[in-house]
Amino acid sequence: MPPVYLDCNATTPLDPAVREVLFHYLTEEFGNEGSRTHEYGARAKQAVQKARDQVAAVVGAKREEVIFTSGATESNNLAILGLAAHGQETGKRHLIGTRIEHKAVLEPLEEMERRGFEVSWLGCDEQGRVRVEELEATIRPDTLLVSIMAANNETGVRQPLDEVFDLLEGHDAYLHTDAAQAFGKEP
User: Which residue from 7, 76, 81, 157 could staple onto 128, CB 3.0 to 4.6 Å apart?
Assistant: First the structure.
């Protein structure tokens, strides 16, 4: 019996239409979007800006707010570890996370602990959802970051991000969410 692949949220076979577009840019329009002194670079820049606009439309952002990285792990590292200097400068050295996060979030939070930041770890209820009231009791004036995933990579449980956002509205802590498992799937 052939194996059955059950990890399509992580990696899926490439859609033939996507493969065609990708192949076109790998073989015919292979310019560097940073090199705009020639036609190949100008066309590459247009293609990247179009992709940036498409992503911005899905997430309700502005084009200039979209940053492309190599993937979710790099994005999470950039978002979490990138706050270290700001936290040291401002004295905000408290972070809040959950132990149900993907390791791409757990590892940079643990690295922040090694760098001298304090991380409070929230629990979850029997359905695997973060308890917003526990978050409310845990947040402090020196909280720099709250990191709660959008949807769990193993269970599919969606977190109450609207409630979390509402709670943080009056606080200046950053809200980070790893939405890799939810991107394009949220209603």
Answer: 157
pLDDT for 46-90, tens place per residue?
999 999 999 999 889 999 999 999 999 999 999 999 999 999 999
Strand partners, 95: 119, 145
Question: Amino acid identity, residue 21?
Answer: V
Cα separation, 55 vs 52, whole angstroms: 5
Say how many C-beta atoms besides its own lie within 10 A of residue 117's C-beta. 20
Q: What's the domain count of the chain?
A: 2
Comparison of pLDDT for 181 and 54, the residue scoring more: 54
Considering the domain architecture, whether residues 86 and 171 belong to the same structural domain is answered as yes
DSSP letters spanning 24-92 = HHHHTS---TT-TTSHHHHHHHHHHHHHHHHHHHHHT--GGG----SSHHHHHHHHHHTTHHHHHHHT-
In a domain, residue 154? The reply is yes
| The model's pTM | 0.86
Rounded to whole angstroms, the Cα distance separating 94 from 71 reads 26
Q: How far apart are CA 82 and CA 141, in angstroms?
A: 20
Domain interval for residue 108:
72-176
